[in-house]
Structure formats: C-alpha cells, structure tokens
Amino acid sequence: MAPAPDSSQREAARSLEIMQRLREVEESILARAPEHDLEPSLDRIQAVMELAGDPQRTYPVIHLTGTNGKTTTARVIESILREMGLTTGRFTSPHMHTMLERIAIGGRPIEAEKFLRTYAEVIPLIDLVDARSAENDEPRMTYFEVLVAVAYAAFADAPVDVAIIEVGMGGSWDATNVADGVVSVITPIALDHQHFLGNTVGAIALEKAGIIKADGIAISAQQNDPAVAAILAERAEEVGAQIALEGEQFGLESADVAVGGQALTVRGLAASYPELFLPFHGTHMAQNATLAIAAVEAFIGGGEQELDLDVLKAGLAAATSPGRLEVVRRSPTVLVDAAHNPAGAIALRDGLQEAFTFTKLVGVVAILKDKDASEMLEILEPVLDEVIITRTTSARAMRPNDLGEIAKGIFGEARVSVVDDLPDALDRAAGIADESGVGGGVLATGSVITAAEVRMLLGVTEV
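Request: output the structure for the sequence above.
Response:
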C-alpha cells in the first residue's frame, strides 16, 4: 500500500495545478487582439462592467495618462498611500515578466490563485458580451479589455481603499476609462502611437484629457507645448473639475544627485517638503515624484492638507520602478531602461548625463518596428560610445540588419555592431565594457521588452 502524500507533496501538486491553469488562461487571453491592435470603443468593457455590477465604482480611483512616466508616477503614488496605511490596487502596463504584474494589490503582483478565481468570475460575462458582438459582426473583447475587467473586479473583491489606474493608450476611449477618477494625473504629453491618437500633440492631448472627470481634480505635469496645457484646462472647465499645473500650483524646487538616487525639495499643493530621498536617477524621475506628491495631496485633502513629512519620506524611499534607469548588475555596471519613443530617449539621455560617469558606455539596443528608431538613436548617440544592435523575442521587433543600417548612418560603421541574438549581444557589450576597466558600462534599451529580457538574462525578476 503506497504511503499517503504528505502536506509538502500536496502543496507541490496544488502549485503545479495552479501554474498549469494560469498558463491556459494566459494563452486564452493572449489569443485575443493585442493591445497594439486595439478597437477604440468603451462599449464592450462598459457592458461587462455593468453585468458585473460596476465594481470599478466601489472604490475611489486615481487615474493616470500621458506619454511617458505613467508607471513610475503610479508606483510612487501607491508607495506613499501604502505608507499612510491604505490598501491599494494598482493597474499598470505593459508588464515586464508576467501579466500578473499589471494587477497589484498592496504593492505586490496579484497572486495567481486570486487572479484565476477572479478570471473565472468575469469570463462568463466576457463570453456573453463577445457573443453579442459576434451577432453584430463586431470584434470580441481585446487582451487589454479582459485584463481591465479582471483588475477592477479583483480590486473590489480585495477590497482596496483606492485604485491607482494607468491607461493603456490615450484616455477617452481607453478601456480603463469606465472608471471615474477623483484625481486624474497627466504626465508629459508627446508624440507616440500616432496611428491611434493623432499626428499632433494637440490631438493626442484632446484624447488624453478625456480622463478628467466632473468634480475631480486634475494634476498635470509641465507640458512642453502651451497648447497642451490649454486643452487640459479647457477640459477641466468644461466638466467642472479643478486643475493644478506643475510650475504654477506645485513644482520641483531642487534635485541633487545622492548615493543611490536623489535628494529633493518639492513644493506641493499644500506645503513644501524638504530633504526627500528618491531612489531613482534623473530629473525626469524627480518630476514624476513631484507629480505623485501633488496627486496624493489632491486625493487625501483636496490639495489643502499638508502631508506628514516622515510618512512622505518613507513612502518615497520605499518606491521602486523596475526597468527605469535601473542598475541590474555591477562589474561591469549594466543599466536597463524601457525608453521606447523619442521623449523617453531624451529623458534617458539626460538622466545618464546627470547621474552617471562612464569612461565607456556600450549600448545594447533593440527597438520595435513601429517606433521611431532613427530619432531615438540620434538622441542617444552623444552618450553611447559603441552600440550593439540586436532584437528581442517579440514578433514586433525590428530586424537587426535593418536597425543596424539606421544606426550606422548615425553612429558611423566603426561604432556599430549587429548581433542577432540578445544574449550574445549582451555578452559582447559586457566584454567591451570590461576592457575599459571599472569605468565601463552597458545600457540596454529600446523597449520595455528589451529591458525585461535583459533583466531576466541577468537573473533579476523582482518587480
């Protein structure tokens, strides 16, 4: 007679069962239209939410849009609110290693078992809406819409005290916009996703302004184009929302390089906060933190209540932002950054110049084929001594030879190498950096996927 399995064996079997079920669900979700091939409409997600009892209306929402900096700003907001004792939900995209990262509760990715349980609750509703769509020759729910539905339901079930929600793309018709943010946060707006959002920053701003809701408070980063600020102000006036602009009602007073990050002084909506430590590099990250502080002030006391300085310091110090000017290895130093458009490349370049001193910096660059690779490379050229052109495992990755030709036209042939496989490209870059001594470094960038795959190659998967 075989002995009965002990508790550790039973637990291992259960873990395997959960992993297998999660893999099946992920494959089912991935079989839907991807987020870069979306169908602009709120009809499908709105229908699912109504069938579910509108879970997104059972907790207050801080809603974020913009072109770059959304995820970092969301994570800093969350960290401060958690330090205040609130249970938080956070929805961000894209993910780095697993789709579970997109839905975080209490600062941690949702547990697989909870994700599966929530998915099981909403998939019958999704199937019903898909069936209605099919009857009308309309597309079924997309990958992104399904994850939004799961996130909103999971946050209601937790329950959370507040949800920090990052749009996937745009604003007005983004699936997340079935929620009404009591605070809406707009990071800097620049050109990106033009085929969906428009070819001017003004057109993009109009779309993103759609998350500003009646009786809410809008918190906007400083915008490079005055027309953008005007559009946001017009939207706020139209719906009866308050608006606060960086550089006017709040702002970054100082940012100095410190060991492991920066020392900041921030003028918030309600008070000035000195001697803050932020464990991120670059002025753009300091500005993200400034925006986050103003958003927390707006949420907690309508912008009129001073935050406890010790709580704020602890919240900032505990914040993380994987894949954003992140050091993932020493000797040689390897940085990863998820910059994937010209505005992100400018922030990366400036952050490198502000916070790091390399005798030689080798770039490992892989860019998606629908991005402006030429402009990104031109922006990064002054800070990269050599560049290794490669590709990620993404089907959307630009072919290395094609990207290499663009790079050679910008860097010159002597500074460019083309290596088809990312692991080999990383090894070569590390070898070149090593030859330069302790001052050599490697920067891997070009997309979130590039940053994520380099992190994984170096054994870094914590988010």
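Residues 232 and 288 are 18 Å apart (CA to CA).
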